[in-house]
Q: What sequence folds into this?
């Protein structure tokens, strides 16, 4: 009985993915007649959890510089408002600068050209591929590996949701994007983004550091021509095409979302480059003020060493102390 239910669930999942592709192919085909591409509009999709969301530095170092360069900038925020969840407990944050989705809308309202803030209910028990779970990390418990796999699936599903929302906004704006950007909710730029990050028109750009035998998955800069393939490929590869032996050979036996994303892009023939012009850094929020944060461990070479050292997260004890101080101040 359970086997039959599992098979039906797999079939339903595959049908949903295929139908989504067919639907958006039709939408994209139709909208080409009414949408123009000026290359002067950039879409930014921020995905993840409201409880880990950072926006102040995103506006300061991404939105404002882009507007100075003459771009129109849209933001899509796909956020879960559930209690915070962390795969890596070492870097657990302890606060959020935003408590409600309405606060996100209010903060961004006058800073961008078009805005969408969407509540996203992350899947708590998605269909898991047992082979991916087993290969993920054999030093962890089964429950931990399933938890991590669930987080990876939600990350890839959110990327695909970014694609759908970008397509809808293009139709609404009657203007195609020149580039789109996907950023994790806790990823920030430590310095204003440079215009040279946008000159590579035929490749997906990611950061050259923190790649873990794959690509850095904190953020991705995508030219419009590669938007469909790059934002939907990981989820489809996981459910439809994954070849575990081929993957392990590609990733040198490192099963993680970074290596799986690189493998998926390669399988789809998506050209990519890693550099230092587009390098979002992950942070932990420690208190209620916009300046209360620390930067998680970063490899050298991609970020300003002075900023990294002055803001580096130290240890869990310090973060726990900061959290207690914050909670005390709010009573």
A:
């Amino acid at each position: 009985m359970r086997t039959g239910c599992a098979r039906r669930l797999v079939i339903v999942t595959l049908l949903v993915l295929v139908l989504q592709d067919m639907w958006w192919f039709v939408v994209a085909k139709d909208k080409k007649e009414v949408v123009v591409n000026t290359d002067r509009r950039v879409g930014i999709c921020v995905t993840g959890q409201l409880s880990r969301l950072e926006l102040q530095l995103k506006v300061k170092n991404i939105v404002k510089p882009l507007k100075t360069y003459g771009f129109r900038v849209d933001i899509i925020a796909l956020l879960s408002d559930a209690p915070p969840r962390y795969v890596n407990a070492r870097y657990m944050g302890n606060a959020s600068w935003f408590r409600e989705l309405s606060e996100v809308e209010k903060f961004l309202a006058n800073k961008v050209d078009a805005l969408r803030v969407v509540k996203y209910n992350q899947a708590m028990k998605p269909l898991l591929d047992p082979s991916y779970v087993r290969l993920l990390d054999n030093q962890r418990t089964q429950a931990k590996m399933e938890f991590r796999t669930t987080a990876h699936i939600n990350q890839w599903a959110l990327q695909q949701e970014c694609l759908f929302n970008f397509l809808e906004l293009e139709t609404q704006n009657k203007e195609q994007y020149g580039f789109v950007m996907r950023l994790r909710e806790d990823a920030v730029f430590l310095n204003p983004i440079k215009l040279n990050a946008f000159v590579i028109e035929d490749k997906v750009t990611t950061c050259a550091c923190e790649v873990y035998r794959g690509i850095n998955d904190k953020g991705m800069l995508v030219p419009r021509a590669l938007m469909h393939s790059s934002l939907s490929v990981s989820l489809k590869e996981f459910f439809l095409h994954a070849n575990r032996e081929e993957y392990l050979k590609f990733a040198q036996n490192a099963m993680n979302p970074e290596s799986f994303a690189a493998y998926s892009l390669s399988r789809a023939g998506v050209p990519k480059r890693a550099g230092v012009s587009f390098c979002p850094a992950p942070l932990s929020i420690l208190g209620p003020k916009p300046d209360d944060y620390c930067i998680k461990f970063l490899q050298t070479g991609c970020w300003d060493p002075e900023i990294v050292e002055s803001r580096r997260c130290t240890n869990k004890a310090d973060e726990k102390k900061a959290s207690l101080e914050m909670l005390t101040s709010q009573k």
In short: The chain is about 45% helix and 15% strand. Residues 1-6, 18-34, 317-331 have pLDDT under 50 and may be disordered. The longest strand covers residues 41-49.
